[in-house]
Design goal:
- This protein is mostly helical.
- It has 3 domains: 125 residues, MgtE N-terminal fold, CATH 1.25.60; 104 residues, CBS-domain (Roll); 170 residues, SLC41 divalent cation transporters, integral membrane domain (Tetracycline Repressor, domain 2, Orthogonal Bundle).
- A 3-stranded mixed sheet has the order 1-2-3.
- Helix 8 crosses helix 10 and helix 19 runs antiparallel to helix 22.
- The longest helix has 31 residues.
- The N and C termini lie far apart (72 Å).
Length: 449
């Protein structure tokens, strides 16, 4: 297998040896071509993509970063795009066309083959984050009355239309899904057996409106490689393959990670600076107001801090550990929600567990902090105040970190969205209020430290 390095490709381009480069780059795996395009400077993206044959281009285009794909689509000739779309599976074609401007997508749909156009139009009606948005309509579907040899001949006749054939789906005369037929069982069956006798009747399927997170959960739970998609009346519509679900899992993980820091849309390393500012500024503005709220709590104890200035040195310890503890709890609970581990029956048990963990961690960390504070200042009361406030804050962290995402999920709000800023704000307020409040009460007769 040919390998091309970044420097070799750049040399080809600089020396205008595009004919030679075209031959070599089309021998690469599409995933390697995607990586090459992402690594090259922006001015080379369209040149590299123009060298790809239609098949490679159809595999590469859906895998490119959004901003790179948008740039290529702006510059590509319509006939070239039609040829590329023709090579794609229907789900990928629908994704590409769905991301285009309305007029451009309408013009494109008018130019491609009528059968493909109608299929893509139907797929575009489904939510892109649903089973319908993920499915491809290229499937092997056979009637339950067909004999083994008939099924094999049918698969041979349609092998060019469907990739990665592991199963044939079995339907009745009304196109309703009644079973699934593994190809190994088909080959081992007797010639006179029909599909109804060979098939597995227990079929895991997804309704076309099912959310993609729940679809991924089905793949994970039942170790699936292919999932049939049906309508409300169990008519077979298409299939979802495991490679699409890997993309969904990556997407959902990235989405949750972005949302936890206030980025609802992806912000990549080389995203335009203005776009990055637009994505980050609202979150930072929200953080500004939550920080002002926290500082107002600290302001209530201004006289205590003036008199006992060393408290200012210890305040970040209480707040920081509480925030970290809350984030740990938030991560565990949010993941449990995403994986379907939390149900109505076990939610309170999970909250109790996280609160217990917070208290135990608080007792251990608070005891260590108490000893350190005593060794530094020689004041046991200060140590007790610091240790007690840390126990209180880690209790707050466990309670808030476990209940906030559950409450947000109940309200049908993504638990990853804004949970971290709320938890950070509340643990900061809890930490500062408990530490400075206890210091005000128990250290009122202590001289300046």
């Amino acid at each position: 297998m040919i390998m091309l390095t970044y420097s070799e490709i750049q040399k080809y381009l600089e020396e205008n040896r595009e004919t030679e480069l075209k031959t070599n780059i089309n021998e690469l795996h599409p995933a390697d071509i995607v990586q090459i395009i992402h690594e090259l400077p922006v001015e080379y993206h369209n040149r590299i993509f123009s060298l790809l044959n239609d098949q490679n281009a159809s595999d590469v285009l859906p895998e490119l970063f959004d901003e790179v794909r948008e740039e290529i689509l702006k510059n590509i000739q319509q006939q070239r795009l039609i040829n590329i779309i023709d090579e794609m599976e229907t789900d990928e074609a629908a994704d590409i066309i769905g991301d285009m401007e309305e007029e451009a997508s309408r013009n494109l749909l008018e130019k491609i083959e009528e059968e493909d156009s109608e299929t893509i139009k139907q797929l575009l009606l489904y939510d892109e984050d649903s089973a319908g948005g993920l499915m491809q309509t290229e499937i092997i579907s056979v009637l339950q009355t067909m004999k083994r040899d008939e099924i094999i001949e049918y698969i041979r006749a349609n092998i060019g239309e469907v990739e990665n054939i592991h199963y044939a789906f079995v339907t009745d005369d009304d196109k309703k899904l009644v079973g699934i037929l593994e190809l190994t069982r088909l080959l081992l069956a007797r010639p006179d057996w029909n599909a109804e006798k060979i098939m597995e009747r227990e079929v895991i399927s997804a309704v076309v409106t099912l959310d993609q997170e729940q679809v991924a959960h089905l793949f994970r739970k039942y170790n699936l490689i292919i999932l049939p998609v049906v309508d409300e009346e169990n008519h077979l519509l298409g299939r979802i393959t495991v490679d699409d679900i890997i993309d969904v899992i990556d997407e959902e993980a990235s989405e949750d990670a972005y949302k936890m820091v206030g980025l609802e849309n992806e912000d990549r390393v080389f995203t335009n600076p203005i776009s990055s500012v637009k994505k980050r500024l609202p979150w930072l503005t929200l953080n500004l107001f939550t920080a002002l709220l926290v500082s107002s709590v600290v302001g209530l104890f201004e006289q205590t801090i003036d008199r006992l200035s060393f408290l200012a040195v210890l305040m970040p310890i209480v707040a920081g550990l509480g925030g970290n503890s809350g984030t740990q709890t938030l991560t565990v609970i949010t993941r449990g929600i995403a994986l379907g581990e939390l149900t109505i029956r076990n939610t309170w048990r999970a909250i109790f567990k996280e609160v217990t963990v917070g208290i135990i961690n608080g007792l251990i960390i608070g005891s260590i902090a108490m000893v350190i504070a005593y060794l530094l200042k020689g004041n046991i009361i200060l140590g007790v105040v610091l240790g007690t406030s840390m126990i209180c804050n880690m209790f707050i962290a466990g309670l808030i970190g476990s209940t906030i995402p559950v409450i947000m999920k109940t309200l049908k709000i993504d638990p990853a969205l804004a949970s971290s800023v709320i938890i950070t704000m509340l643990t900061d307020i809890g930490g500062f209020a408990s530490f400075l409040g206890l210091a005000t009460v128990f250290l009122k007769d202590v001289a300046v430290l």
